[in-house]
Amino acid sequence: xxxxxxxxxxxxxxxxxxxxxxxxxxxxxxxxxxxxxxxxxxxxxxxxxxxxxxxxxxxxxxxxxxxxxxxxxxxxxxxxxxxxxxxxxxxxxxxxxxxxxxxxxxxxxxxxxxxxxxxxxxxxxxxxxxxxxxxxxxxxxxxxxxxxxxxxxxxxxxxxxxxxxxxxxxxxxxxxxxxxxxxxxxxxxxxxxxxxxxxxxxxxxxxxxxxxxxxxxxxxxxxxxxxxxxxxxxxxxxxxxxxxxxxxxxxxxxxxxxxxxxxxxxxxxxxxxxxxxxxxxxxxxxxxxxxxxxxxxxxxxxxxxxxxxxxxxxxxxxxxxxxxxxxxxxxxxxxxxxxxxxxxxxxxxxxxxxxxxxxxxxxxxxxxxxx
Amino acid sequence: xxxxxxxxxxxxxxxxxxxxxxxxxxxxxxxxxxxxxxxxxxxxxxxxxxxxxxxxxxxxxxxxxxxxxxxxxxxxxxxxxxxxxxxxxxxxxxxxxxxxxxxxxxxxxxxxxxxxxxxxxxxxxxxxxxxxxxxxxxxxxxxxxxxxxxxxxxxxxxxxxxxxxxxxxxxxxxxxxxxxxxxxxxxxxxxxxxxxxxxxxxxxxxxxxxxxxxxxxxxxxxxxxxxxxxxxxxxx
Amino acid sequence: xxxxxxxxxxxxxxxxxxxxxxxxxxxxxxxxxxxxxxxxxxxxxxxxxxxxxxxxxxxxxxxxxxxxxxxxxxxxxxxxxxxxxxxxxxxxxxxxxxxxxxxxxxxxxxxxxxxxxxxxxxxxxxxxxxxxxxxxxxxxxxxxxxxxxxxxxxxxxxxxxxxxxxxxxxxxxxxxxxxxxxxxxxxxxxxxxxxxxxxxxxxxxxxxxxxxxxxxxxxxxxxxxxxxxxxxxxxxxxxxxxxxxxxxxxxxxxxxxxxxxxxxxxxxxxxxxxxxxxxxxxxxxxxxxxxxxxxxxxxx
Amino acid sequence: xxxxxxxxxxxxxxxxxxxxxxxxxxxxxxxxxxxxxxxxxxxxxxxxxxxxxxxxxxxxxxxxxxxxxxxxxxxxxxxxxxxxxxxxxxxxxxxxxxxxxxxxxxxxxxxxxxxxxxxxxxxxxxxxxxxxxxxxxxxxxxxxxxxxxxxxxxxxxxxxxxxxxxxxxxxxxxxxxxxxxxxxxxxxxxxxxxxxxxxxxxxxxxxxxxxxxxxxxxxxxxxxxxxxxxxxxxxxxxxxxxxxxxxxxxxxxx
Amino acid sequence: xxxxxxxxxxxxxxxxxxxxxxxxxxxxxxxxxxxxxxxxxxxxxxxxxxxxxxxxxxxxxxxxxxxxxxxxxxxxxxxxxxxxxxxxxxxxxxxxxxxxxxxxxxxxxxxxxxxxxxxxxxxxxxxxxxxxxxxxxxxxxxxxxxxxxxxxxxxxxxxxxxxxxxxxxxxxxxxxxxxxxxxxxxxxxxxxxxxxxxxxxxxxxxxxxxxxxxxxxxxxxxxxxxxxxxxxxxxxxxxxxxxxxxxxxxxxxxxxxxxxxxxxxxxxxxxxxxxxxxxxxxxxxxxxxxxxx
Lengths: 371, 236, 300, 254, 293
Ligand SMILES: Nc1ncnc2c1ncn2[C@@H]1O[C@H](COP(=O)(O)OP(=O)(O)OP(=O)(O)O)[C@@H](O)[C@H]1O
Ligand SMILES: Nc1ncnc2c1ncn2[C@@H]1O[C@H](COP(=O)(O)OP(=O)(O)OP(=O)(O)O)[C@@H](O)[C@H]1O
Ligand SMILES: [Mg+2]
Ligand SMILES: [Mg+2]
What we know:
The complex is a heteropentamer. Chain B has ten helices and ten strands. Chain B is of the alpha/beta class. Chain E has helices at 3-33, 40-56, 62-91, 95-116, 142-164, 166-176, 178-183, 188-213, 221-234, 239-260, 265-279; strands at residues 133-135, 138-140. In chain E, strand 1 (133-135) and strand 2 (138-140) form a beta hairpin. The chains are: A alpha/beta, B alpha/beta, C mainly alpha, D alpha/beta, E mainly alpha. Chains in contact: A-C, A-E, B-C, B-D, B-E, C-D, C-E, D-E.
């Protein structure tokens, strides 16, 4: 009789047999497409690893929460993951504005975080000091801005650029600043710099003004939704110059929303989609989810690779040991060689991949790195 | 024609009408007198279909009255509410025309409009004024005029002389008599018990939500208890 | 549940409560509806962070500086808009809140839209609790004084208030300023809890959330605001594992509370010893006095 | 001695002259009446005196000081208060709270004192509450002090409005149709109440009403208004016998 | 007039007409119920989704899908009224509660879409060619023109309905006093249903047009804040006010972007809004009536 009071229906593995890894990112809002893809990719990769016997003989499990792109939510999620769920490491978030405020939480809990596409320098380094528990697998905004400016000026030969950016967005403001700095320092001029605010859907007033200024290229340091709308409206207004953007642009959604209008757009990307090395990942994802892999999927893949490598080298799933191992990471991911620098916790010397939209493909142009 | 039986109305915990019964015959002027808070307005609102009542029946020409003001109006019962309730942001004219909302007979409406303006020349003068800025008395006239426009069979008048100058009070009571002559039945709630009793056929005394007395207007007016409680130590 | 995690939720509830208390004075007791309180939080947050980061001030003076800044700005806004009625005032405050955010997005001194990291981590559960207790006492004292009653009068009926000698505009302004000061402190607490400020944090959604808490807790009730802040801050956390469905549930529960209990959780009642006594006597009165009132009450 | 003087007072709404060039004095320590047909401009005059409407032309002198164009709360502070034709209580508050609020000007402690609950605040609060209780006692509302004002019977609401007005220690009390909606018996009671009140609170009173029993019964001076202009002025006797007033307002009473 | 000015004017008019379609629904409900129906944005969003699904999944022809979407939101708006407002109405709750209930509804609608359909964007198939009409160097989008015309027709029909039909008159009367209207024999409950149905119909039209022009996503509601501001700008509760306010807001926004700074466009628009309210506390066309004591 007493035995019945404690039913053992779940035959879950004992706690120490599981390595819990947290994930955070946007599952609502404009960037939900990316967030969902990240989480799905992590799940797929963990399943694959578990199917092969797991890591250090233990199974990997991911616990993912939505941050709604809100810094305050991000802190809540970080507390939940580290405090309540006791994860050994966190993957994500994709937004810098969410990655920055969780640092104190990580430090208190001594749990490392590997950000995916958070490109603001301050995610890992603040006032010259590296944050002990923040890492990332992507390059940073100044680098991205420099690449975009350099490629536009040096390779494509554009001397006059216009920028249309989102004043209320951190990524957009950062990229704008660095693009402008490098472009001007190379000798180009920014003939028009117009802004909009998150939530806007009509950009024709700004575009009309940009048209008046006669630029040779329109730089869009923004995300794909606005970019698609802008592209459509620009073409309607008779603006035919090529567009250019950062890693906020590439998405399958761009084609469904503005296929014709975005033809010929140059994008500074983290990865070359046609690279033979990524084909396998791409098709695995497509088979499993019947969707195209988004950019964030590649980066979170590399975050997983970095994490797995660190756990293996640490020989333990202890979060402090993982953190130590992360500082000496040298692995090859699908987005390139990732050598984490101890001073900055950034992957050093990562090339950017310049791609161009042709048809419904991102056609690889070249690897480019700014000097 | 109108028959109320054992009506009980509650406002939350407050028992406002406690088993009220009354009858009104065609062509009569019946008045209800009672002090403040006796439940007079409550009774009219219940008849008009504004209030859900727990117990009791209200019948009109042998049919149960629905609890839905617009259906009640359709059946020919129209209330001129206490406190005027004019459409404050519409003009005087719009207000009056809304009174005829349910009517279709255009010519007759015109005729009635003229009649209303005849009864209340002040309204004609202020035709285009926004009703909310009328003086208290003017609003009362407007409410009466508007009620007349629906051409009802029974008019429920809730303190029509409220806030009117003495001269006009007389006029209003004259109008009530005129209205009756138009083959209408009138249920009149009044504080001005003297006047009301002087033009009414029959009267009810309502006290604390109960009918305390009923009878011919003359009988009520002569009753010493009523005289003391409602007609007061009238000067003059 | 893990203590650290619960602490985090309580901290956040405490910070929200601070802003909610302020809004409660404005909305619950003075009858003015604001959609811009996140704006005051932002001002308080940035001002106090400026004090600690750029001038090295200690925490509490910096918080007070934030409160002062928010109150001053609110005075200017109030002077312009407090004469507006109902929704018009709402929309003016909404405009103000958005405008503050827009300005902050463009001020590179504070990091613009990219945010401002590296603010010292001063906020902890102890000081949040202490500050909230002080705030509640101050508010309760105010409400129980003639000044508080004057605000309530303004909420009930402006013209009558004027006629009994209440300077309606002045009391609206005072209420707005105090409420902005509270929001300012909340902003300061938030800044030193998150160690990071970004204009995005003070969006219209934040303002709406505060208003919902006030109404959910019950207009004109301080204890309601406390309860509301605790419940509504932790509700999304409790529902966190429902992922996408949690906001659906949240929205639904707001509607259900409104239609089933429109006076909010506490609706005008307070949890104080004396009020509990009063409530009891009121209940008793209802039973004993009412019949006599109906039957025995002689007119005049 | 006059407590209030209206000099050439005019108020126009758009093209409409609601009050035109009215001169009028309210004697100190007496009960005066203001009567006239509906729409004559009586309530408008009250609104002008209390600052609810802005004066178009003319002057209002209270205790020989010009109060034209001042804010309503300022005028209330000077000692003029009123009741409304359409009752305006703090409907959702209790009877007691209604009066207590109006007592506020009897206190002088400031916000800081109230927040810290300093002794002066506590002492004055006690006094305010005392005063409110006293007033309710005098007005016979003590036994209903915890009722919500809106649930009071109409007559008591009017009474509460007067109680609330008295809480300000006014010198001049303006009553706008206090007997509206009352039956003759209730009106008579109101009359005696007002007559008692006047000496007790050292008031001057100005009443608008259409109940001639009341107006003629307690007013010492009456002014008649017609179409915004003064038609007559004098003792109740004079007024009742004035043919112009009879024609325009009183009618031949039955 | 410079080409640039003309182009900005056209841009402004076209943005304004989007605001107008949305603002009319707000104003309509406001005029009867005296509260700002924040759930309107959610209904517009669903209108856009319905239109999208009717077109792509059911394969309805455009106009059928258009009307079907509008009818669906019609029903939806009435359902929201029954569920979230009617109980409050029966209790005579103050306007604040309506607003909060509306906010709850709006949070609910947005998130139910996220939870069921998902957060991804949907694009309408191309119904009108994207190549614009050229007038000199000024361009005019075909869709904009269509929208402008459709808005104008709808608004004209609405004005006709309000001013010249019996139901319209009943709506006007009910907006002033529900009890008095009932006494005139007006079925006020029906009037309220009709008003929400109309509001919902307009929301559907606005949603579909919006979706065609931009895209469909769960946060469309954000943009309706702008139309809310426009409605206030013009004077809440006034239909012509809503239209004028919307067009003006559209033009002010574009001109600010064009001639001053797009960074501070919203700031300037807000400052202007507050300035207008300071001088005209009831908006441009709202009625100013003195409170009669
Ligand atoms: N909406 C309400 N809620 C609660 N109580 C109410 C409501 N309306 C009326 N009452 C109460 O019901 C009782 C009857 O009110 P009613 O208005 O019917 O009186 P009346 O006879 O018309 O008085 P009056 O002469 O003042 O118009 C009163 O005690 C009143 O306080
Ligand atoms: N705010 C206003 N706008 C326009 N006209 C107004 C306004 N207030 C009053 N009036 C007009 O001024 C005139 C005087 O109104 P007032 O209210 O003073 O009359 P009254 O003498 O008090 O009448 P009653 O005895 O009926 O209350 C009326 O014709 C009224 O319509
Ligand atoms: Mg009554
Ligand atoms: Mg009057």
